[in-house]
Amino acid sequence: MFRRKRIVDEKIYELLPQGVALSWGLVKQPQRGPKRELNVNQIVEAAIAIADEDGLTAVSMNRVATSLGFTPMSLYRYIPSKDDLLLLMQDAVCAIPLPPIKEEAGWRENIKEYFNACLKVFTDHPWFGDIPISGAPITPNNLQVVDWALGCIKELPLSDFEKMGVILLISNYARGCGLIQRDLNRALQSGATEGTFSGRDYSAALKQLVTSERFPHLHPIIMSGVYTEENPEANDVGDDFDFGLELILDGIDSYLLSKKGK
C-alpha cells in the first residue's frame, strides 16, 4: 500500500512545476545542512515581510537569506529559484480566514464577502498585484479560496462553466479595485493629496480645457464636478467599488432570470 502511494506521489511531482510541487509539500526538505534550521515556510515568511515593508523589488534571495542569517546558497537548497519563491509568497498570502457560508443570507451577500476578502489581500500586501498572472490557480491556498467562492454560488442553477465564469468575473473586478486602492495608498504615502489623485485640484483648469465642442459627452460631467469628485455630498451612488459590485451582481441576477425564462 505504501509503495503504491509513493509511485502516485512521484507521478504528481513530475506533472507540476517545482514551485507548485513545493506549495503542495510534494518536495522533500534537504536532509543535510546547518542543523537543518531552515524550512520553506520560514523563507517564504521572511520574503513576505520584506515585500510588505519595501515592495516586491526589494525581494531577492540574497536579501531574504541575510534576514534569516544564512547564505543565498542555503536558500537555493530549499527553493530552487526566485520565481518559485514569488509563487510561494503569492500562495501564502492567500491563506486567508474563510468565513462560513451564510446560507440564510443568499448568494449575493456571500459573494460580497468573497469580493471583500480578495480586496483585503491587495490592501494587506500591496505587492501582490505586482506578480503577473501566469496561469490558472493551481496552488493549495489559491484553490481553497476558489473552492470557498464556488460554495457561495453552489445553489445557483448554473453549469460548471458558468460558475467558474462568475468567479472569474468577481475575481477580476476585485483585482482591478485592489490595484486602484493600492495605487491610491501609494500616492498618498508619497505625498499626493486625495484632491490630486481624484483630479479635484485640477477641476478649475479642466472646466476651461474640456470644451463641449471637443468633448461633447464628457463636458457636462466635468462642469457638474462629478468627474473630479468636486461635490462628494451630491454623490447618489456611494462607494464606487460597492456600486460597481452591485451592478455586476444585478447582471448575474438578470442572467439567472433569463435562464429561468427559457
From TrEMBL:
Task: Provide any one GO MF term from the record.
Answer: DNA-binding transcription factor activity
* Pfam families named in the record: TetR_C_1 (PF02909), TetR_N (PF00440)
What does the UniProt keyword field contain? DNA-binding, Transcription, Transcription regulation
Q: Which residues bind DNA?
A: 60-79
Q: Which domain of life is it from?
A: Bacteria
Q: Where is the HTH tetR-type domain?
A: 37-97
Residue ranges crossing the lipid bilayer per the database entry: none
Q: Example GO biological process term?
A: negative regulation of DNA-templated transcription
Query: InterPro entries, from UniProt?
Result: Homeodomain-like_sf (IPR009057), HTH-type_TetR-like_transc_reg (IPR050109), HTH_TetR (IPR001647), Repressor_TetR_C (IPR004111), Tet_transcr_reg_TetR-rel_C_sf (IPR036271)
Instruction: Specify the protein name.
Output: TetR family transcriptional regulator
